[in-house]
Amino acid sequence: MDASGYTTLTRQNGLLHELQVIANNIANSSTTGFRREGVVFAEYVKALDDAPSLSMAHASARNVDLSRGEMQQTGGTFDFAVDGDGFFQIETPQGNRLTRAGHFTPSATGELVNAEGYRLLDEAGGPVFVPADAGQIALSEDGTLSTIQGPLARIGLWQPQNATALRHEGGTLFSVEGEILPMQGGRMHQGSLEGGNVNTFSEIARMMEVQRAYELGQSFLDREDERMQTAIRTLGG
User: In the chain, count of helices (H) and strands (E)?
Assistant: First the structure.
């Protein structure tokens, strides 16, 4: 295969990867707190022995869209939404993770947990506990969780030291390469959830565009294969 064939193969691999990312965005367009992802293409030069260098495409990096999703009122006591920047911090077996998905329920021991059973953490990094006999629960904008008897806890909002350090682990959880820092001035709302920030129509349009590009690349590879087979038959004859 000549240089153009290798270059096209790397491009095809990147386009296929982008199609997978777009499909995942569309599948999670209605997932609470989901963050749209995009693929970052890059070019690198491959040195070849006794031949000109070869330009190759690379598309492994993912770009996380941190724009806010639409607020959806639910009326749930333990449905919390972040207004602006910041993330809730969740304790998982793999370490602490960040999320914008704010649907929680009290566990059997009274700790607020998400759908996977992972504990929500307060501003000090400890679990948030709600007694079974707490009665009516109210959440203020600064994250203070209270009953008529007084404050119970203050839910923390967190952010990565560097936004590019966020790594999507699947679903709505993000790991952070580096330190997770408390965020000052964030606001929360009770009885609401933040929807995903995926624009389904633009994602479908992008999928069609990438599919056309992939099909053009495949047509080129098919023609190259036919050309090589013809050359082999001719020379072999």
Answer: 2, 18
CA–chain centroid gap for 151, Å, is 33
The CA distance from 223 to 207, in Å, is: 24
- What does the pLDDT look like over 216-226, one tens digit per residue? 877 766 676 67
CB atoms < 10 A from the CB of 126, how many?
13
Q: Residue 166's pLDDT is what?
A: 83
Asked whether the beta carbons of 78 and 106 are under 8 A apart, the reply is yes
Q: Are the C-beta atoms of 230 and 52 separated by less than 8 Å? A: no
Tokens of 96: 């602490």
pLDDT band at 135 (very low <50, low <70, confident <90, very high): confident
CB 183 within 8 A of CB 85: yes
| Residues 99, 70 contacting (CB under 8 angstroms) | no
- Given a contact cutoff of 8 angstroms between Cβ atoms, the answer to whether 197 and 23 are in contact is no
226 by Cβ neighbours in 10 Å (0-12 / 13-18 / 19+) ranks as: exposed
Strand residues in the chain grouped as ranges (E): 37-48, 51-64, 71-73, 80-83, 88-92, 95-99, 105-106, 112-113, 119-120, 138-139, 144-147, 150-154, 158-160, 166-170, 173-176, 180-182, 187-190, 192-194
Contact 187, 73 (CB under 8 A): no
